[in-house]
């Protein structure tokens, strides 16, 4: 999402952009995604907020908390911070639609980056190709080629957990959005448009890379005996639709900018999903980068400004997500007790500490023809 956000923002301030996408085609992939108010404001600034809202449904994420037995620790309240729940594919489509078709190059696997020259080598259709740009934006995920060119040895760290995700469409039971807290695992249930339901399970993993012949059965084993409608949701899930990913986080990198290149999204600040802010922070990155480039005529000054604005905030959010995971794991009983007694205004303030962010305003209708 960060790459598309940067492309939208840079085009909006007058740049020509090219997006190298590793996937062979822009197809429907992924599951549900929660967009917090900070991300929605950023999408508004990028000009796609209305389209994204039309593809989503409002919900309260992490506001309704339950025990595996079904007892409620806390019900979501009208004054809780709301999110927009969307399917990842719908968000991708809304952000991709304003970009011209020739700006999107699918099936392109980046193999190397020259930071000083601003050139990118990539493989496409069995051939090695190269493109040059005034600015290279690395939104290439956890195992970023650009990050390795900038900061060799800075690899993501396995978190010791895995996550399963799926969307249930036809036949989904009626739900109340909730997060069920087990001692070492959590099961989330959230709505999607069209009465669909998104569910996820985070659970311990001894090592990365372990997969199961029947992923749905592996999920069911880990939540056996948990409250309704978890069992009904799993029964309504198409087995082949379950996604399984290992969880990683990235220790702070020395900088997000070097030479003619910048990092954003997971390439810069991969974090665990415990605050639901990963994609939101990537979208913020794209807006701030575009605003910095528009505000400064000198590229080095612009990307330095981007780094100074984004690195402290994103690393703070990543630390907070890691801290939340640690609290849940090491202080489960205290967490469940506190969930019952925290006053609603304090609960909202805790959620709003990252969601009250306001994006910089982007200028429109500029005529720069610089490539990125």
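Sequence proposed for the structure above (372 residues):
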């Amino acid at each position: 999402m960060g790459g598309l956000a940067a492309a939208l923002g840079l085009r909006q301030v007058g740049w020509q952009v090219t997006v190298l996408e590793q996937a062979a085609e822009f197809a429907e992939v992924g599951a549900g995604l929660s967009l917090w108010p900070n991300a929605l404001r950023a999408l508004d600034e990028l000009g796609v907020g209305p389209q994204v809202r039309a593809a989503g449904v409002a919900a309260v994420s992490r506001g309704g908390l339950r025990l595996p037995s079904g007892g409620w620790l806390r019900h979501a309240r009208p004054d809780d911070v709301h999110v927009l729940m969307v399917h990842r594919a719908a968000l991708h489509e809304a952000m991709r639609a304003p970009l011209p078709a020739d700006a999107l190059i699918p099936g392109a696997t980046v193999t190397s980056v020259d930071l000083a020259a601003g050139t990118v080598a990539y493989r496409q259709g069995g051939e090695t190709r190269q493109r040059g740009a005034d600015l290279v934006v690395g939104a290439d995920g956890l195992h970023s080629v650009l990050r390795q060119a900038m900061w060799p040895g800075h690899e993501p760290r396995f978190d010791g957990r895995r996550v399963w995700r799926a969307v249930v469409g036809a036949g989904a039971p009626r739900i109340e959005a909730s997060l069920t807290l087990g001692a070492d695992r959590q099961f989330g249930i959230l709505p999607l448009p069209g009465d669909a339901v998104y569910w996820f399970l985070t659970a311990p993993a001894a090592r990365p890379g372990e997969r199961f012949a029947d992923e749905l059965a592996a999920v069911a084993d880990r939540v056996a005996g948990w409250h309704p409608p978890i069992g009904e949701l799993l029964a309504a899930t198409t087995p082949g639709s379950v996604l399984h990913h290992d969880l990683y986080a990235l220790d702070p990198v020395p900088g997000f900018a070097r030479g003619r290149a910048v990092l954003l999204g997971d390439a810069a600040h991969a974090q665990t999903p415990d605050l639901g802010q990963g994609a939101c922070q990537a979208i913020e990155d794209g807006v701030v980068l575009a605003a910095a480039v528009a505000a400064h005529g000198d590229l080095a000054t612009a990307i330095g400004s981007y780094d100074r604005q984004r690195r402290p905030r994103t690393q703070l959010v990543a630390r907070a997500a890691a801290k939340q995971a640690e609290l849940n794991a090491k202080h489960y009983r205290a967490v469940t007790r506190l969930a019952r007694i925290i006053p609603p205004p304090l609960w909202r303030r805790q959620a709003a500490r990252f969601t009250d962010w306001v994006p910089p305003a982007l200028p429109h209708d500029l005529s720069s023809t610089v490539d990125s």
